[in-house]
Design a protein that fits this description.
The complex is a heterodimer. Chain A has no helices and 11 strands. Chain A is mostly beta strands. In chain A, the strands form 2 sheets. In chain A, strands 2, 4, 5, 9, 10 and 11 form a 6-stranded mixed β-sheet that branches. Chain A has a 5-stranded antiparallel β-sheet with strand order 1-3-8-7-6, with no helix packed on it. Chain A starts with a strand and ends with a strand. In chain B, strands 2, 4, 5, 8, 9 and 10 form a 6-stranded mixed β-sheet that branches. In chain B, strands 1-3-7-6 form a 4-stranded antiparallel β-sheet, with no helix packed on it. Classes of the chains: A mainly beta, B mainly beta.
Chain lengths: 113, 114
């Protein structure tokens, strides 16, 4: 069965530091993978997606993620954190059976001044 | 429409009352999803509509919850005899059939049962 695991319910980084949010998936076939961001009191917004093209995917707000098949990972990174990046981030994998998304539990990113 | 629209944005109701939450998906999106997000929690899947197929209701937490989608477009989530534990943000999302573009979410309805 396909699944998604996000390591760390909370990640805290200093402003200007590297952001690394971890996502591992399980899938028997090449997956479609997504990262979403949820700012306080808002819905979820698509950050970026991997759909079997380039393994390094660039998204909005300076975020990017690299698909690594050997590690079954799709970690989200940003070179320099801004205060405005404080939000909750969700990783998801698309089911092959009915195209629904399976969601990770989310990681809350905290930015320290 | 340009995005997924949910109404109302906020709803306060008394315990035991029925509530209806509305979702208007992006025009042409055949798939529609309802999720619940309790305070500080992740996404809890509720129900999934795909075109004219029978909906996947496997996530509905009790028989007090029901949803319908009329004409393949607007959806209504109904909660009967609301309980305090129903307090949460209810999110709706839509997508094209195969989902390769991911979901587009509405801003949610914050339900408070007092």
């Amino acid at each position: 069965a396909q699944s998604v695991t996000q390591l760390g319910s909370h990640v805290s980084v200093s402003e200007g530091a590297l952001v690394l949010l971890r996502c591992n998936y399980s899938s028997s076939v090449p997956p479609y993978l997504f990262w979403y961001v949820q700012y306080p009191n808002q819905g979820l917004q698509l950050l970026l997606k991997y759909t079997s093209a380039a393994t390094l995917v660039k998204g909005i707000n300076g975020f990017e993620a690299e698909f690594k098949k050997s590690e079954t990972s799709f970690h989200l990174t940003k070179p320099s954190a801004h205060m405005s990046d404080a939000a909750e981030y969700f990783c998801a994998v698309r089911l092959d059976s009915n195209y629904q998304l399976i969601w990770g539990a989310g990681t809350k990113l905290i930015i320290k001044p | 429409g340009a995005g997924v629209s949910q109404s109302p944005s906020n709803k306060v109701t008394e315990k035991g009352k029925d509530v209806e939450l509305r979702c208007d998906p992006i025009s042409g999106h055949t798939a529609l999803y309802w999720y619940r997000q309790s305070l500080g929690q992740g996404l809890e899947f509720l129900i999934y509509f795909q075109g004219n197929s029978a909906p996947d209701k496997s996530g509905l937490p009790s028989d007090r919850f029901s949803a319908e989608r009329t004409g393949g477009s607007v959806s209504t989530l109904t909660i009967q005899r609301t309980q305090q534990e129903d307090s949460a943000v209810y999110l709706c999302a839509s997508s094209p059939r195969t989902g390769e573009y991911g979901y587009t979410f509405g801003s949610g309805t914050r339900l408070t049962v007092v």
